[in-house]
Amino acid sequence: MLKYLLEKEFKQIKRDSFLPRIIFLLPILQLVILPFAANFEMRNINLSIVDNDHSVLSQQLREKVLSSGYFNLVDVSAKYDEALTSIESNKADIILEIPFRFEERLGREGGAEVLIAANSVNGTKGGMGSSYLSSILMDFNQEKGLSPAAGQMGGIRVTNLFNPHLNYKIYMVPGIMAFLLTIIGGFLSALNIVSEKEKGTIEQINVTPVPKALFLLSKLIPFWVIGLFLLTIGALVAWLVYGLIPVGHLGIIYLFAAVYLMAFTGFGLAISSISSSQQQAMFTAFFFFIIFLLLSGLFTPISSMPEWAQALTRFNPVRYLVEVMRMVYLKGSSLADMSGHFAIICLFAVFFNVLAVLSYRKNS
Amino acid sequence: MNVIETEQLTKRFGTFTAVDHISFSVGEGEIFGFLGANGAGKTTAMRMLCGLSTPTSGSGKVAGFDIYKETELIKRHIGYMSQKFSLYGDLKVWENIRLYGGIYGLPEKRLKEKTDELLRVLDLEHERNTLVDALPLGWKQKLSFSVAVIHEPRIVFLDEPTGGVDPVTRRQFWELIYQAAQRGITVFVTTHYMDEAEYCNRVSIMVDGKIEALDSPAALKKTFKADNMNDVFRALARNAKRGE
């Protein structure tokens, strides 16, 4: 019986004017555009400099800062108050104030303080900007051979493991691949059964002896196949566009994706079963997806969320796949390292599919 | 032998009683007309018999199976054609036949023979590869009917199968019904056309959720001193409070 139902589903997908296109476009667009947009590296930080010294050294410091490429010089003010106005009018994000007798004090006393003031309305920009600026200053100190500060800090050296250049795209791409699977598995399936309700075709199916689970399976398998196909396109794009190849085993990714797709297709089918219109299904799915996405750690690190939010992420299947994708792609984790993740994703798959079977009713 | 039996069958939606304690039976091989005005409760009653809707109270058996507990067993022995066309419009004619034949467990070889046979009987051989959406309504309805009886069920339920169909096609449709009845399939049909009521062995007339009359067309005409079923229907439906 399943064979005939599957034939039907695949023919319908093939004849759909919308689905095959979205299946190709979605991964390409998301993977090519999003990693550039969702880039947390700060550039174009507007800097206002107050130079009270007007010495050669202060000039050198200015050049050093500007040549880093992170900053735009908006204005050079004579007084701190003037610079503050440009922050208030949103022209500048950060003020760097070089004190009187900067050069002289550096030479004589071996140290001088500069002031960094950041506009923290956009906290990330302010925070990142001042830390960039401080590290540039530290560098400057060292170059000039006046590095008591660096010396005092005991020579801390930071080494970034797994993503040595802290390239944001490399970090985002595996996560976005996880999100792609979520959308395909969850959204497309959420629209499926309910569209049969709207057309009335489900009535003819419900009056046949087709077992519920079998009918749902015939809905699940096509999305499962599409999802794995999409994952393949995604992996290709990651390789061709970003030169990204998983450090770990690609097979592990497929294994996780296979179970994960079952989970999210079950989720979508459950939504579809309880909805009475595509609109309703769409909004219900959307409601959950936004929460899943924001609590997934895809864009913001889970470790910096408040504790209650961290607790919530444990009930979010997306979180686990995002982690798995990053671990396999960047760290090369093995299946044994992630057996906990695997068990949890399996549980989600069982849970959502049982929910789907229970919520699909052949009689009212 | 009765293939459908109901006793005080009732369906309520909130405070609205769509089907109000109906009791009747249909014998094997009968063509049973289930008449009533719009909103009388025909479709609701039919859906309960098909296992698509759970009754509020009362009891019933279809093909010997309980309409509460054995709905999935009932579904093996019945065919159903809903009021709204419900085959897959984005599948071709032969693909719809194949799908439902397959669901009802016809073996692959039999499925091919059955498809050819159906297309020949329906005179749709040249439309084999047409998407069902592109067919005219009359052909769609004939195809729906053929799909509903593809597994030679004991009973077929037809909900206004000829609504909106031209007289010639209606005639052809009833020929299909007669052929099915000759093969021993019990036909349970709702209609608004009183000439069609005359084709039935027995008819029941529902008014406001209750069965007000049930007999052969000839006996009904005698009881209501009417010349035709139209007058019988009017005499009964005149008092209806529900309607459009």
UniProtKB/TrEMBL annotation, chain A:
Q: What keywords does the record list, in alphabetical order? A: Cell membrane, Membrane, Transmembrane, Transmembrane helix, Transport
Which top-rank group of organisms is this from? Bacteria
Q: Which residue ranges traverse the bilayer?
A: 21-38, 170-194, 221-245, 251-271, 283-302, 340-360
One GO cellular component term noted in the UniProt record for this chain = plasma membrane
Q: Can you give the residue ranges of the ABC transmembrane type-2 domain?
A: 130-363
Q: How does it sit in the membrane?
A: Multi-pass membrane protein
Coiled-coil residues are none
Q: Which family does it belong to?
A: Belongs to the ABC-2 integral membrane protein family.
Name under which the protein is recorded: ABC transporter permease
Question: Which species expresses this protein natively?
Answer: Parabacteroides acidifaciens
From TrEMBL, chain B:
**Per UniProt, which keywords does this protein have?**
ATP-binding, Nucleotide-binding
Kindly indicate whether the keyword Nucleotide-binding belongs to this entry: yes
* Domain called ABC transporter: residue spans: 4-233
Answer yes or no on keyword Lyase. Answer: no
Molecular function GO labels: ATP binding; ATP hydrolysis activity
This chain's protein is named ABC transporter ATP-binding protein
**What species does this protein belong to?**
Parabacteroides acidifaciens
